[in-house]
Design a protein that fits this description.
Organism: Henriciella marina
Keywords: Glycosidase, Hydrolase, Signal
Largest sheet: 8 strands, parallel
Number of domains: 2
Distance between the termini: 51 Å
Domain Glycoside hydrolase family 29 N-terminal: 5-378
CATH topology of the largest domain: TIM Barrel
Radius of gyration: 23 Å
Shape: globular
Helix content: 25-40%
Number of helices: 14
Protein name: alpha-L-fucosidase
Enzyme class: hydrolase
Structural class: alpha/beta
CATH class of the largest domain: Alpha Beta
């Protein structure tokens, strides 16, 4: 790859000048989609079984991961629950490759427009589709031939059809690509985090140009609004050239933080955990726009944009062993959205469609429910920016704030239900006057603001895990 033309050059210095687009800061909420051949067996152990394992045994953790999208790897552990299920259901010699053909057959019934309508109804503002996961199966009929596996891609253009459908609903469209792991090029059984590096195909496997060509094709065909790489990339120079092409071709796009390379340089803080983080976070590469903690959040405002991602349950791809009780509740999603908005983040909530193309009803109902919540709470989430408060808790409940300067609004988020109906909140200095106070989804009995303190009485708090006071203010 060479001859990059445009404002951005394939260097860390040039690429680091890229700004996160305003649409992403406004959006706050996106839908992730993990879907592919693994949705046919749709099996991983239930989280309760996994919790009984020795958490210090890394090999056991990989052999029994709750991520159903890792089926092809977990079936390689002879004593794993996945291997047992595969033997009993399909037979000892049944190849994972057969799931690709079954997935393509099921695609005849797929209706991307119905998915897009649901995502719009949820209140999400963007959609990120897994276009190629670790099994190497491409969800578009690529012109880039896989030298190791024939016809290992969809017959329908899932990427293109979904891009068209979600954009027709006014949503942005992004693509995920597993740049660091592709089991069609190299698949040593992954049983530790160190194995990620030894399992990464590169120059010796003729993988680098293949991945480069895929990325060029995705950018040229679909002009994705978000380029979401996973795990790593096999060569730093090539990653810089891909990103330079992308930034120049899609001026209002962005990328994530999963571009670390085995041959690249690392900052001294690449593996540090930023303050206030829960969950896991990838090592920081030289170039990125948004940090992406997995099953984790930040609890304070930090000087960068971030996006938490998680499955509806304990898996990203659909896991037949998960029931409705395993899925995150509407209130928990609302809490994530409010908290992330208060602390400079977004939520990328994953759906795992079944192999028959249906989004599981329990997952769809969560999207519908959070969409109803956002009909009321949306002004405090969408198109806002975080606002630092002098206090972090009020009435034993964590609080945060967002503001919409253009609308003259400040929103105080109580990330829980206060135990009393009268609260006092210390206001930031930049608020010179409060002109009115209301409760989103509820009422206000009385309020006053003087000497930098807001005092509010409510008849009762709203029936959600997040209580929001809307302040009309003067700066």
């Amino acid at each position: 790859m060479s001859g990059v033309q445009g404002k951005f050059k394939p260097t860390a210095e040039s690429l680091s000048q890229h700004d996160v687009p305003e649409w992403f800061k406004d959006a706050k909420f996106g839908i992730f989609i993990h879907w592919g051949p693994a949705a046919i067996p749709a099996f991983a152990p239930h989280k309760v079984q996994i919790d009984q394992l020795d958490t210090t045994d890394e090999k056991a953790g990989f052999a029994n991961t709750p991520y159903a999208d890792w089926y092809q790897n977990t079936m390689m552990f002879e004593d794993s629950a996945t291997a047992k299920y595969h033997r009993e259901t399909y037979g000892e010699d049944y190849s994972y490759d057969n799931f690709g053909a079954a997935f393509n057959e099921a695609l005849d019934a797929w209706d991307p427009a119905s998915w897009a309508r649901l995502f719009k109804q949820s209140g999400a503002r963007y959609v990120v589709l897994v276009t190629k996961h670790h099994d190497g199966f491409a969800l578009w009929p690529s012109d880039v031939k896989n030298p190791n596996k024939d016809n290992w891609h969809t017959t329908r253009d899932v990427v293109g059809e979904l891009a068209e459908a979600v954009r027709a609903e006014g949503l942005k469209f992004g693509v995920y690509y597993s740049g660091g792991v592709d089991w069609t090029f190299k698949h040593k059984r992954i049983e530790s985090f160190a194995d990620f590096l030894t399992s990464m195909p590169g120059k010796d496997e003729n993988y680098i140009e293949y991945a480069n060509a895929h990325y060029r094709e995705l950018i040229d065909r679909y002009k994705p609004d978000y380029l979401w790489n996973d795990i790593a990339y096999p060569a730093e120079k090539d990653s810089f050239e891909i990103l330079a092409k992308y930034y120049n071709d899609v001026p209002d796009g962005l990328t994530n933080d999963r571009w670390i390379t085995p041959d690249g340089s690392l900052a001294t803080d690449a593996f540090e955990r930023p303050e206030g983080l829960t969950g896991i976070i990838p090592p920081k590469p030289p170039v990125w726009d948004a940090r992406t903690p997995e099953y984790g959040m930040f609890d304070r405002i930090l000087p960068f944009q971030w996006e938490t991602t998680r499955g509806m349950g304990h898996s990203f791809a659909y896991n037949r062993n998960e029931s409705d009780e395993d899925y995150i509740s509407r209130d928990a999603i609302a809490h994530m959205l409010a908290s992330s908005a208060c602390f400079n983040g977004n939520v990328l909530l994953n759906v795992g469609p079944r192999g028959d193309t249906i989004i599981p009803p329990g997952q769809a109902s969560r999207l519908e429910a959070v969409g109803k919540w956002l009909e009321t709470a949306g002004p405090a989430v969408h198109h806002t920016r975080p606002l630092a408060l002098p206090e972090t808790t009020v009435a034993d409940v964590a609080i945060g704030a967002t503001h919409n300067t253009a609308a003259g609004k400040v929103y105080i988020h109580f990330l829980g239900i206060p135990g009393e109906t009268e609260v006092s909140v210390k206001l930031p200095d930049q608020i010179s006057a409060v002109n009115s106070v209301s409760q989103l989804g509820g009422g206000v009995s009385n309020w006053s603001a003087a000497d930098g303190m807001l005092q509010v009485s409510v008849p009762e708090w709203a029936d959600t895990a997040v209580q929001i006071l809307a302040l009309d203010v003067s700066a």
